[in-house]
Write the structure tokens for this entry.
Amino acid sequence: MAIKVNLTSPTQNLVKSLDKNLELSASSSNANQRFMRHSQTKDSLTLTESASALAKLFQSSATAYEIDATRVREIKSTIEYGNHKIDSARVAQKLIHFEYQLA
């Protein structure tokens, strides 16, 4: 029968632990230095013409449509009371029109 004897003292374990922490700290410090060097360089972003046009379109469309509060209330009321009629032909027409605009 073999008996395993641990000859390391608590002090030796502490020293090993501190050594590991110092190694981690040093590698972290190197990473921080690399990050600082990288962050000192200036990043830039250039949009393509189509991306710029899309951004302008998005900004203008955000304010282009006015909401008719009276019409919204009317529609909510008809839905609430179960009187709202959906014109499926009109919905289909609008979907087709929308698809053509996307193409």
